[in-house]
Amino acid sequence: MSQLGERLQEAREGQGISLSQASVETRILQRYLVALEDGDYQHLPGDVYARGFIRNYANYLGLPAEELIDLYRRDRGISEPIRVVPATSSPRIRGLVVPSFFGVFFVVLVLIGGSYLLLSALNLVGDSSQAQVAIQPTIAPTPRPLPTPAPEPTGAPALAAVPTTPPTFGPVGAALSPTTAPTQQLDAPIVAVVSIDPADATGSWLEIKTDGQSVFRKVLGPGQTVQYRAQRDFYVRAGNAGVVSVVINGQKQCCAANPGEVMTFTWPPQ
Fold this sequence. Notes:
Blueprint: H1 3-14, H2 19-26, H3 30-38, H4 47-61, H5 65-76, H6 101-130, E1 190-196, E2 204-210, E3 213-220, E4 225-230, E5 234-238, E6 244-248, E7 251-254, E8 263-267
């Protein structure tokens, strides 16, 4: 088995994905996936197709595609083609151009016109600098007196301090009941609890995202529970949805599925 095949197989088995499931979700024939993991490249349709299979399979498993393609090239003994860069050509030397009579005459006219405009502008500036501009003094308005605050009445009863109690939350992984959820002040509008059936023997591979950010991506064992909070949206993808339970704000929302079935759940529902 090649180094490329070992990395692909290790990533797939670590996520609890079978070859048949990967073939369906990547739309790559199962025999091609087996050939990639075994390093049996002669059974692939061609070099271009092999690179495309590696790129799609790597993106599906969350691996760096370019790094795996480099491993494939090393296994096949393919090197980068040598690029031939043409030498830069020597700059062309322009010949001496003799200016024409009309060109010289036009340049002289432009210089004379520019000099005349410059002298006219200087004369206008000198005349305007001699004019005196009368400056009228401005008087600032008198500010109004500030209102005097009324004296506080004596003998008024003091206001009783209202004790404030910070909101409390249950331990991570504890399911929230519908009767207690409205009385708790949550710091996020979405509180999600994901748990695995204790009677299950294998668990399930999970990918969890909160507000578009991936926060969990591995196998959750039987009887284990995780809890996350989100401001906008919550996303779960389960490889064995039949043993997964998702509770949103104290109410179960997912998953009614068969064991081994892959299911994606989002909140709010789309």
